[in-house]
Amino acid sequence: MHQSTRYLSAGLLIALLSTVTIDAGGIGAPIAASSTTDRPVPETAFAQSPPTSYWAPVGPPRAAMLCIHGLGLHRGTYGQFATAMANRNIAVFALDLRGFGTWYQQGQPKLDFDGSMKDVRQVLLSIRARYPKLPIFLLGESMGGAVALRAAVENPELVAGLISSVPSNDRFGGLGDDLHVPLRILGGGFRERFDVGTHVIQYATEKADLRDLWKNDPRGRNQFSPAELMVFQGFMKKNFDMASQVKELPVLVIQGAKDKLVRPSGTWDVWDHLNTPNFDIALSSTGEHLIFEYGQFSVDDLNYVSGWLDKRITKEVDDSAQLAMTKPPEEVPQKVVQTKEGDVIPASVASATSHGADKLSISYWIELMRDGKRFRCNNKTSFRSGDEIRLHVRANVDGYAYILLKAGTSGKHAVLFPDEQTGRYNRIAALRDMALPTKSWLRFDNTPGQERVSIVFSRKPIEPKPQDPALLTAFVSPDRSGAKDLVPTRMELTWGDPNPVIIPASIQNNSSLAVASGQALEANLVKVSYANPDGVLSVDVALDHK
Fold first, then answer.
1. Strand, helix or coil at 52?
2. Range with lowest mean pLDDT among 375-389, 414-428, 464-478
3. Which of 71, 189, 382, 472 is buried most, with the most CB atoms less than 10 Å from its CB?
4. How many domains in the chain?
5. Distance, CA of 509 to CA of 287 (rounded, Å)
């Protein structure tokens, strides 16, 4: 075996997969229109330069949103989504990036991302002037997701939250290879444009009506030169650096389960580079590449995004009210920026943080990949050579999770997660399911025996060691009777039905079982509680490899 191959033990090694599953918020089937109960909201001009549209809220506005379109598209593609948001009293704006929409129709086809970033800031300032007391959210899709990410980094004082849909540059097949860009350069040079849109559309959707709409949209753009594609690629490659600079802002990253253009693993990698403690990642279980544009969102998609926004809008109002009670009126800022990690509890988990404050508790279940199918199980299941697993962990408070190899068939010890290969971000929000490792799976090799991994959870970051006598540890054996489970004093242990439950075929390729519709989420769940709320909870999980 090559020296570069990393073994975690003779019985466990990391298997990096090309497609990473994403924990989701339960979002589903596409619809052609936002909702039959929505009032029609007209698209009106907001500014002449940059070209910007506005959808007025039907009632008193609660927040504002700026939408940014994808490659080849334009501001009008958000019409149905903007109408749905306006009916929920969100003031929605969308602009044309330079080289697209009105710019392109008026003979200005140059892709200018630096100029577009200035335009985004100009529109944000205009929105702030129009709605000085409302939180402003950015939403972007595909290329627009990357633009929104960068705009959030460059304008933190203007943005209350970011929704970035499939912002990754990691595509199935590789756009450059499919379009034969090197051959195009040889045949026509850097400046000669050719049809890029048709290739993108073929990957992006399998719906014939959407393909026709997209390809024949009079405000759209399908022709690009190799030079323009290189500018586009160069901008998209900065996503990781941009994500790493997001340190406090609430972020929601979204991926379509049926996206054949952008790899889910690419979206996950962008998410994994975020440094903010206030994040969410969601899967639209039937979404393709486009979710928000051309009305491709579902009712569940819309409800999930609306719920996410509602929590952040409430957080902004609550923070402002609290500051108003403690500071003179003239000192109250128009927007409250969340302080660094640990100083402010994210709104999504604030109500949960005090739950069970007299103890520390976690639950876990095991996601098993076997013969191309995924199962939900616990360590009462016998594992086979070639099986791949991830541990889904949920805690009652915010904290940090670690996975250690305590004893493999080789007797080696190691910290499996967090790690550069397995994922670096190990912060867990209270009452949220998180699959660990975040970037990889654990695979059983061909050596039978018993593997022993440890899940360690703490409210504060620690440096756990595989053999730490100071840790009070519960031992969960593979024995189905539970007779061999060892639980120290002051700890409680329960575990559910050990029989594996298969993940439904409709989502098993792209989502975790944690959101499977109709599944009993308590099945196979192992729960451990520790009476010391400020301690370190450690659970040894014995895996029987036959």
1. strand
2. 464-478
3. 71
4. 2
5. 13
Whether residues 199 and 261 fall in one domain: yes
CA distance 4 to 16: 14
Residue 461 falls within a domain, yes or no? yes
Place of tokens 């994808």: 70
Question: Is the pLDDT at 11 greater than 80, yes or no?
Answer: no
Q: Are residues 284 and 359 in the same domain?
A: no
Burial class (CB in 10 A: 0-12, 13-18, 19+), 459: middle
Identify the H or E element spanning 385: none
Is residue 5 in a domain? no
Q: Rounded to 10 degrees, what is the CA torsion of 338, 303, 393, 472?
A: 50
Task: At 365, give phi and psi (nearest 5°).
Answer: -140, 165
Q: Which helix (H) or strand (E) holds 369?
A: strand 360-370
Is residue 331 in a domain? no
> Which of 291, 315, 339 lies at the terminal end of a domain, its last residue?
315
What are the phi and psi torsion angles at 108 (to 5°)?
Answer: -120, 80
Please check whether residues 203 and 268 belong to one and the same domain: yes
Whether 308 and 354 map to the same domain: the answer is: no
Run of H or E including 473: strand 473-476
Q: pLDDT (tens digit, 9 = 90+) per residue, 271-306?
A: 878 888 888 888 887 789 999 999 999 998 999 999
β-pair type (399-407, 414-417): antiparallel
Per-residue pLDDT, 503: 60
CATH number for 111: 3.40.50.1820
**Residue 238, Cβ neighbours under 10 Å: how many?**
14
Q: Which domain holds residue 173?
A: 44-315
Q: Is residue 29 over pLDDT 60?
A: no
Count Cβ atoms below 10 Å from residue 231 Cβ, excluding itself: 17
* Residue type for position 522: E
* Better-scored residue on pLDDT, 227 or 61: 61
Local structure of residue 440 (DSSP, 8 states): -
Q: What is the mean pLDDT of residues 57-72?
A: 96
Q: b/e for 155-178, b at 16 or more Cβ within 10 A?
A: beebbbbbbbbbbbbbbeeebeee
In 142-261, alpha helices (H): 143-154, 175-179, 181-188, 197-204, 208-215, 226-236, 239-244
* pLDDT, position 389: 93
422 and 378 assigned to the same domain: yes
Do both 296 and 147 map to the same domain?
yes
Contact 381, 368 (CB under 8 A): yes
How far is 41 from 20, CA to CA, in rounded Å?
A: 38
pLDDT computed for residue 14 by the predictor: 32
Q: What is the dihedral of CA 344, 349, 352, 358, to 10 degrees?
A: -50
Is 385 domain-assigned? yes
pLDDT, the chain, mean: 79
187: left (phi over 0), alpha (psi -120 to 50) or beta: alpha
Write the pLDDT tens digit of every residue in 430-489: 877 788 998 888 889 888 888 899 999 999 999 887 777 778 889 999 988 888 899 888
Could you read off the pLDDT of 224-247 as tens digits, one per residue?
A: 988 898 899 899 999 999 999 999
Q: Among 150-159, 196-205, 275-284, 309-318, which stretch is predicted with the lowest mean pLDDT?
A: 309-318
Same domain for 301 and 356: no
Same domain membership, residue 287 and residue 374: no
